[in-house]
């Protein structure tokens, strides 16, 4: 067990301990340090969690799916913070984050694929989200490398992307420059930490530290590279269905194309031939030219999933418990700015922004009931 003591801020700010140095933990630490806290970050392998393999889609519209209205609102709130967050991080570090605002195309390869995609974007349009349906000709005017077989699709102009590896490195640098101290040690018991505020941002490791239901959800993902010296054949993020197989393609200016990802209720990180085959097949069905690219990486990561697929954001166990910023599942990169801002505010001022209300830990770990009366009913006035 680690016993750590966080330090007092130079300006007398509170001591904050942040457990976990993935994008979420780093961004929380950075924001807390900028606000005057003395921050210590704990992680034996910083930047090695789900963020290390993530594609980096900032997709408030494509990820607005049936039954997740509150999460859709949080994704939109975070997307609106992304431009200023990226600019501030670049100004603090000089780093190019690979933040791109070209937009996203959602496509269907077959008539069945298109029917399914259209059903979702109809729902998204009913929510007032920006979706522009395109005919095949319009689609190919946007993205000439799409297969001629693609039956149709839509433009989502506000769904953007950032390179998670560049983001994580920049957040680490910005946090260090703001005064965050990093301790490369695993925290196994929160009781051993002495800080004014503890923030648990430990991804899948959050379950063991807090008892909250955060489970690993495996994702296998590939990285292709365009022929040397050339940009990828696609400019937009392309996501869609190819004969029922969901796939996304995320092009980077440096020639990389990320192809993702499986969603598997498993906790291993093996890369399997079948998954690679399915992802490559779906990718090349949509953009045939990708078959000429080099396959440079095949990896698997573990998303921190929760029972309702939404993150856990807030204070655990009443007024004295640690803060939790975990369980971001498919949305860790997209939700980084809003999580960092709101959790830092909660850590330093005690104010819980109403945006956090649907995501508090209590929905999984209700506050303990008051003392029971003789007939077994609760007697406290809470
Ligand atoms: N954010 C996309 C994924 O989790 O695969």
Automatic annotation (TrEMBL):
This is glycine oxidase. Its EC number is 1.4.3.19. Residues 357-382 are annotated as: Disordered. It is an enzyme of class 1 (oxidoreductase). InterPro entries: FAD-dep_OxRdtase, FAD/NAD-bd_sf, Gly_oxidase_ThiO. One of its GO terms (molecular function) is glycine oxidase activity. Keywords: Oxidoreductase, Thiamine biosynthesis. Pathway: Cofactor biosynthesis; thiamine diphosphate biosynthesis. It comes from Micromonospora zhanjiangensis. It catalyses: glycine + O2 + H2O = glyoxylate + H2O2 + NH4(+). It comes from the Bacteria. SUPFAM superfamilies: FAD-linked reductases, C-terminal domain, FAD/NAD(P)-binding domain. Residues 16-346 form the FAD dependent oxidoreductase domain.
């Amino acid at each position: 067990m680690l016993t750590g003591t966080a330090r007092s801020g130079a300006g007398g700010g509170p001591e904050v301990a942040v457990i976990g140095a993935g994008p979420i933990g780093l961004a929380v630490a950075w924001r807390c340090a900028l606000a005057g806290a003395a921050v210590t970050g704990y992680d034996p392998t910083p930047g090695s969690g789900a963020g290390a393999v993530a594609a980096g889609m900032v997709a408030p519209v494509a990820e607005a799916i049936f039954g997740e209205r509150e999460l859709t609102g949080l994704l939109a709130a975070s997307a609106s913070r992304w431009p200023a967050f990226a600019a501030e991080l670049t100004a603090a570090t000089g780093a190019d984050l690979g933040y791109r605002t070209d937009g996203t195309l959602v496509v269907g390869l077959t008539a069945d694929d298109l029917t399914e995609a259209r059903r979702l974007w109809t729902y998204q349009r009913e929510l007032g989200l920006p979706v522009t349906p395109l005919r095949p000709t319009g689609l190919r005017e946007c993205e000439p490398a799409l297969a001629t077989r693609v039956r149709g699709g839509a433009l989502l102009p506000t769904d953007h992307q950032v390179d998670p590896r560049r983001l994580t490195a920049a957040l680490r640098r910005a946090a260090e420059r703001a005064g965050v101290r990093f301790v490369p040690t695993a925290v196994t018991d929160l009781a051993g930490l002495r800080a004014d505020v503890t923030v648990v941002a430990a991804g899948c490791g959050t379950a063991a530290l807090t008892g909250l239901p955060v489970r690993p959800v495996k994702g296998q993902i590939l990285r292709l590279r365009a022929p040397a010296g050339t940009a990828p054949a696609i400019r937009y993020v392309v996501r869609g269905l190819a004969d029922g197989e969901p796939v996304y393609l995320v092009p980077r200016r440096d020639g990389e194309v990320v192809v993702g990802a499986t969603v598997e209720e498993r906790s291993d990180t093996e890369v399997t031939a079948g998954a690679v085959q399915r992802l490559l097949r779906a990718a090349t069905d949509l953009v045939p030219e990708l078959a000429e690219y080099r396959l440079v990486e095949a990896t698997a990561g573990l998303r921190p999933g929760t029972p309702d697929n939404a993150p856990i954001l807030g204070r655990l166990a009443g007024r004295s418990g640690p803060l939790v910023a975990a369980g971001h599942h498919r949305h860790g990169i997209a939700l980084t700015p809003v999580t960092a801002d709101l959790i830092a505010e909660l850590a330093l001022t005690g104010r819980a922004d109403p945006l956090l209300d649907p995501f508090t830990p209590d929905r999984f770990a209700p506050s303990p009931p008051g003392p029971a009366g003789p007939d077994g009913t609760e007697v406290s006035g809470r």
